[in-house]
Amino acid sequence: MLQRFTAVMLVGLLVSGTCVWLTAAEKAAPKAGEKAPKAPAPKVTEEPDEGIQGLYFSQAAAPAKAEAKVVGQGGGAYKVILTPAGGTAVELTGKSEGGKVALTGTGGESGTIADKKLSVSVGDKKYELAYTTVKPPNLGEKPPAGAIVLLALEEGKKPSLDAWDPPSWTVLDDGSMQVSKGDIRTKQEFGDIKLHLEFRLPYEPAGRGQGRGNSGVYLMDRYEIQILDSFGLEPKNNDCAAVYTQVAPKVNACLPPGAWQTYDITFHAPRFDADGKKTKDAVVTVVQNGVTVQDQTVIKGPTGSAKSKPEVKKAPFHLQDHQHKVQYRNIWLVELKD
Fold it and tell me: Which residue among 126, 169, 178, 206 is buried most deeply as judged by most CB within 10 Å?
């Protein structure tokens, strides 16, 4: 009969006829001079989009106005965050059966989703909302004269990766590139810039937290503006549009996964004196989908995986491979003068 170990898993090694026991942590520890192995990314289950998740708004004739975010939770489950006009948000949950979702809330709220319509009763009020597709105001914006084009958008044509090193990501017929085979960096180095890029997140309803549509824009190879499926969440400092682990976005301006979204980033690099001492932190403004979510935000230093890098005047920026099928397109920038 096998004995079950509940505290630690032990691995037996036979060394010179002697049985030596190591914990799993000790077995995994690198030898002197070796690098620690990279932890595998969490497995995220993708599911077909049933056309239920998304934004819902009251129609013009509706007597009670509200908006709602319907968020997929995996296994056919959905969460609804309904915000009445001028009121407090309420949350309901339910599961899809035959394309219809029956909803309940902890405060006695009830509702249904069917045929792209959302009906919710809150006390004596009933809200009728319809699924609505929202496009960012500058989606597909053309680069101005003098801009440096890093990923040209030509619908129906695979983009060139000549501006990137290594050119390893998958190029798609819709004019975008998809995360693949590690991070990629611009061949050029930049300081102060105004950057436009567009991204689309995969639908991964079984994912949670950082395991849901994760990538990132690393300005100057050091300062990450997070890219993540944060649709329907209260924004934190590791959510979409955050200065990663430092500053949460002012509001959640995320669209649901599957929709093209925009970042317009104005970035000012740190300043240094003649001796190389930093005299001013980097500053960033981020406009996501037309909404200002970071406004002249001071970045105290490198973030995330770049934390140990020294700050410099110029560097490439890179896009992160976090092993999620995030897509990017229409990337260009304008270098700013002092």
Answer: 169
What region does 181 belong to: left with phi over 0, alpha with psi -120 to 50, or beta?
left
Number of neighbouring beta carbons within 10 Å of residue 311:
19
For 174, 224, 319, the CA distances from 265, given in Å and listed in that order, are 24, 12, 14
pLDDT tens digits along 154-211: 989 999 999 999 999 999 999 999 999 899 999 999 999 999 999 999 998 887 877 6
Minimum mean pLDDT among 12-16, 106-110, 209-213: which range? 12-16
How many CA atoms within 13 Å lie on the side-chain side of 178? 12
Token pair in block for residue 218: 């690393």
**How many angstroms separate the CA atoms of 240 and 250, rounded?**
11
Tokens coding 219: 């300005």
CB 200 within 8 A of CB 153: no
Burial class (CB in 10 A: 0-12, 13-18, 19+), 46: middle
Specify the pTM. 0.85
Query: What domains can you pick out in the chain, each with its CATH number?
Result: 54-132 (2.40.128), 148-335 (2.60.120.560)
